[in-house]
Amino acid sequence: MLGPGYRAAVLPFRSWARLGLLTVALASLAGSGAGAARTAPGSARTTPARMLIGYYVGYERDLMPPEEIEWSALTHIAVGVVLPRSNGRLDLGFDLGPGEGPGFARDLAKRAHKNRVVPILMIGGAGAHAAFRSAASAGHLQAFVQNLVAAMRNLGYDGLDLDWEPMNPADRVPFKALVLALRRALPGAVLTAPAGITTLTSRNVPPVYREIASKLDRINLMTYGMEGPWEGWKSWHSSPLDGAAEATPSSVALTVGHFLAAGIPAGKLGVGVGFFGDCWTKPVTGPGQSLRGATIAATDNELSYTTIMANYFAPGAAHFDRTARVPYLSFRAPTGPKRCTYISYENRASIAAKGAWARAHGLGGAIVWTINQAHDRTAPAGKRDGLLEAARIAFGI
Questions:
Q1: Torsion angle of alpha carbons 372, 377, 379, 381, nearest 10°?
Q2: Which CATH class is domain 4-275+346-394?
Q3: Is the preceding peptide bond at 166 cis, omega within 30 degrees of 0?
Q4: Closest CA to 57 of 81, 83, 25
Q5: What percent of the chain is modeled with pLDDT above 70?
Q6: 386-394 and 348-360 are packed helices; what angle lies between their axes, rounded to 10 degrees?
Q7: Which secondary-structure segment (H or E) carries 334?
Q8: Closest CA to 42 of 175, 144, 154, 123
Q9: Domains of the chain: which residue ranges?
Q10: What is the pTM of this model?
């Protein structure tokens, strides 16, 4: 999904998602989460009824050192980023360099297994599209699959997360071939496919999802960053549960509905929880307003939940949209380092609402992008990950 300092997929990913272009990734998950019996990596496939998959990326390691991860709130951890190369080989630097990256990844896998959490490798992200497509082409597919399997096993992981962005119509054949080849090579691994959002103006769910659903354990919808300063749009929320309308044409419920209508079983679907916010500039001060030149000045990675709480949050600025079921901050004057006048983000209340809605509709859990961004290192041990704990409770993990 992402890369360091906006390199692999921080802003590039969000650009695709916000335009309503459906994106795809594979996340593989093996075992049944907490309490599952451990076997060799990728050797025993058991799918839990609900998954809570937390993404952890190397370029945000300092935000949440491995020894401070709140394992009890997770069923799976997706560690990245591994980048595909056009010849089917892999960059295993994890944004830390070839000397440090593999050791970093092995350490996280060992910690995950010790805490009975399933570790999976995240592959790709926006910006990796050309290399991904070349690696999955007929001439390189066999080598690519062999390298993915080898990396998973050598680093001690139970699966893969292939984040192919964007998913263009021409990508349908190579992506499907990749999924099928991986399932044949890794019958014991658990594979999931994160997918981009739909909107009222971009309703189509790529048919590849229906075609490969039986080979996947989850299709996780990246329902965050669902707004932007685009022509015909008004200001909106990053992850609205409901309330899609003509000028604010996105919501979690809308995207889920489109995927259900496309033939994806509810239990195969997960939704996205974003541990970051969007900083809108003046004159916008809340949702549903005409843009009049406003833009988003900060987003994922640089506007983490922890940053919002430390540098922007004020009780007098806090509001809750009861239709969208999400919080926001509204300021009369530009505020904070990024000069925000409106910040859309998620909090415990919105996560509780999203989790309750997902469970009521029989969905299979959630992904969190990224667990690093809501970790408060200044809080006492055991109280540093309130948002992650809220997700655990909300999704019934």
A1: 80
A2: alpha beta
A3: yes
A4: 81
A5: 88
A6: 20
A7: strand 326-335
A8: 154
A9: 4-275+346-394
A10: 0.89
